[in-house]
Amino acid sequence: MRILTPSEKILLTLTMFTCTYNINAQDQNITLNQDPKFEQLLNDKRKINTSISTNDTYKIQIFSGKSEDAKKTLSGFKREFSTLDGTIIFNTPNYKVIVGNFKTRIEAERNLEEIRKKYKSVFLVKPNK
C-alpha cells in the first residue's frame, strides 16, 4: 500500500468533491398521468361522505369478536338481510358488526326482533346526540 503525499491527498480530495458535486440522483422530474374520471369519482365520494350522518341514526350490533368471525358474520347477514346495510368497526380489542341506519327507535326495534331470530346476542346502538 502506497502512502500519498500531502499534495496528492489534496488533489484526490478535490477530484472526489468535483465528481460527487455533479451527481444529482434526487433531482428528477416525474410526470403523473391521471385519468380525469378519477378526480370526478373522488369528488363524488367526498359529497356522499359529507351527506351521510352516522351519529343520528339507530343501529344494531350483531357481533363482537375476532376479525375473521366478523367478516363471516357480516357476509352471512348480507345474504339473509339484503335490504339492510352493514359494516365492521374495530374497537379495541374487538371487531364489531353494526347493521342498519334506522331513523326512529320503533323502526330499529322492529328490525331488532327479526334479526334476533337468527343472531342471539344483538342489541340496539343509540345515536350520539
* Overall pLDDT score: 85
CATH topology of the domain at 49-125: Alpha-Beta Plaits
Query: What is the radius of gyration computed over CA atoms, rounded to a whole number of angstroms?
Result: 31 Å
**What is the name of the CATH superfamily of the domain at 49-125?**
Sporulation related repeat
CATH architecture heading of the domain at 49-125? 2-Layer Sandwich
Count up the helices. 4
Query: How would you sum up the global shape?
Result: elongated
* CATH domain class name of the domain at 49-125: Alpha Beta
Number of beta-strand segments: 4
User: Could you tell me the strand content as a percent range?
Assistant: 15-25%
The end-to-end span amounts to: 81 Å
Measured as a percent range, the helix fraction is 40-55%
- Taking pLDDT < 50 over at least 5 consecutive residues as the criterion, the unreliable ranges are none
- Which structural category do the helix and sheet elements fall into? alpha+beta
Give the topology string: H per helix, E per strand: HHEHEEHE
- Please outline the major beta sheet: 4 strands, antiparallel
For the largest sheet, list the strands in their spatial order.
2-3-1-4
